[in-house]
Specification:
Layout: H1 2-11, H2 13-47, H3 52-62, H4 67-78, H5 82-106, H6 110-118, H7 123-153, H8 166-175, H9 178-212
Helix pairs in contact: 1-9, 2-5, 2-7, 2-9, 3-5, 4-5, 5-7, 6-7, 7-9, 8-9
């Protein structure tokens, strides 16, 4: 089976390489846009605690909506292709990053913050020199969760013409050919595992710095 998959990849090398690049581009863009939206909002929500339950409930609810459903909902407005897939994956990426960011900044020891203010630090200095270093490990954990979800779910983009490795999975399913399905499924698993390992390592580095800094 794996031999047949390897031969199929070699025969379709150009298409395979393009699919890998599209899969990485789609997933990375969704994570970057999601982070730019979620992390600042998470910090804001952590500072506006009366609104935290409502915002967190909304984003927690988004986690139970299937990404494929969001893709199909976006199609009437954005058409088929890369863009609706990007929107759906960005929506998928936001909840874990926002929830972890809010928890991270809410969990910063108030005594440490007050001590920094007592030393004459401005609010901006307190944020960047005290709160951000202490909160970063938990924020990165949220990015790690989002990355795993996004890299795995990007496979579904093929169903709305978004491209990526899901094309091989869909083609193999249509032809009842497991070798073709594996040509897409195995690289997706490797990319997802790679994101998990890299961000897990980054999380441990930031945890070490937070404890020793």
């Amino acid at each position: 089976m794996l031999d047949a998959t390897y031969r199929y990849i070699l025969t379709n090398r150009a298409a395979f390489q393009q699919a890998v690049l599209i899969h990485i581009e789609l997933s990375t863009l969704a994570l970057v846009i999601g982070a730019l939206l979620s992390i600042p909002l998470g910090i804001y929500v952590a500072r506006r605690r009366p609104f935290s339950p409502q915002v967190l409930s909304l984003f927690s609810g988004l986690r139970v909506v299937p990404s494929l459903a969001i893709m199909f909902l976006a199609v009437p407005y954005l058409g088929l292709g890369f863009l609706p897939a990007l929107v759906a994956l960005t929506v998928l990426a936001c909840p874990p990053m926002l929830i972890n960011t809010e928890a991270a900044f809410r969990g910063v020891d108030a005594a440490v913050v007050e001590s920094a203010r007592g030393m004459g630090m401005s609010p901006r200095q307190v944020l960047w020199r005290v709160e951000v270093p202490l909160a970063t490990p938990v924020v990165v954990a949220g990015v790690r969760t989002a990355a795993v979800d996004v890299f795995a779910s990007a496979t579904l983009a093929a169903f709305i013409g978004g491209g990526g490795l899901g094309d091989f999975v869909a083609r193999g399913f249509a032809l009842f050919d497991p070798a073709i399905m594996l040509a897409g499924a195995i690289p997706v698993a490797m990319l997802t595992l790679g994101a998990e390992v890299v961000l897990g390592g980054a999380q441990r580095v930031f945890e070490h710095r937070a404890h020793t800094g």
